[in-house]
Amino acid sequence: MSATTGEAIYARAGSLRAERRWAMWWAYASLILAAIVFLAPPIYMFITSLKTSGEMANLQGSPWLVRNPTLENYAFILGNPTFLTFFWNSVIITLCTVAISMVISVLAAFSLARMRFFGSQVLATGVFLTYLVPDTLLFIPLYDIVGGLGLLNSKWGLVLIYPTLTVPFCTWIMIGYFSSIPKELDEAALIDGASWPQMLIRIFIPVALPGIIAATIFAFTVSWAAFVYPTAFVTTPDEMPLTIGVVSQLVRADTFAWGQIMAGALLAALPPVIVYAFLMDYYIAGLTAGATKG
Predict the structure, then answer these.
(1) What is the structure's pLDDT at 291?
(2) Which of 28, 210, 225, 265 satisfies CB 3.0 to 4.6 Å to 285 for a cystine?
(3) What class, spelled out in words, does domain 72-292 have in CATH?
(4) Using DSSP, how many helices (H) and how many strands (E) does the chain show?
(5) How far is CA 154 from each of CA 82, 138, 165, 238, rounded to the nearest angstrom?
(6) Residue 273: left (phi > 0), alpha (psi -120 to 50), or beta?
(7) What confidence tens digit (pLDDT) does each residue in 100-152 have?
(8) pTM, two decimal places
(9) Where are the domains of the chain?
């Protein structure tokens, strides 16, 4: 190797290292900026929840500092039977919605992904397109349907309509995951005499567990955090979920109990945060399963 060639290789390697270093700096800068933007609201909510009403009324000093931290706002929320009722309503609605959504989604996705029939691809695309329809366009006709069934001002009305939000996307996730499973499993099971339900229960559900967990997390998050539908369909405090119960009880005309509102909002957001913290890997695996198809 000549000296000129060696210098060229060294210069090229140095240039690649410099480009990589600059790329890393830009990546870290972008991550730090994104972290500031997304973490600033919950941090400010937490700071506000530790303040008394008098401290919040005092406009002197930085609003990001707490001079006399207190937990009285959390004590008020956790010790109030009304808010415990909101919490249990959210739990009942969420568990029922997740169960209904997963049963429908798994069966629909398995049929569309593995049981090929005329129009299956068009139907699968149509299922996903229904997810793109905004909630604000659907709650008016759904209001008439729920009212006709006599389920207005009832948490069971929310259990009925929440799957319209969760089933299309959950089905789409499961279609991608079922499609990524090798078809040799189907053929081997059919040769051994297994029926389609047996294949689903004994083969596909265990193999597709990460995708099922991802769809479950999505259904849980949507049903727990929904705001438009419960606001339109529920006005009785005994039937309200936590998301609208906190606002309805802590806002009186132009009076806002900001400390209690922030404490209630943080407590309401805590279950999804815990779920994502422990199951994030499964959620990412389920969302990216379709990318490895073939």
Answers:
(1) 43
(2) 210
(3) mainly alpha
(4) 15, 2
(5) 16, 18, 18, 9
(6) alpha
(7) 999 999 998 888 887 777 777 787 777 778 777 777 778 788 888 888 888 88
(8) 0.80
(9) 3-57, 72-292
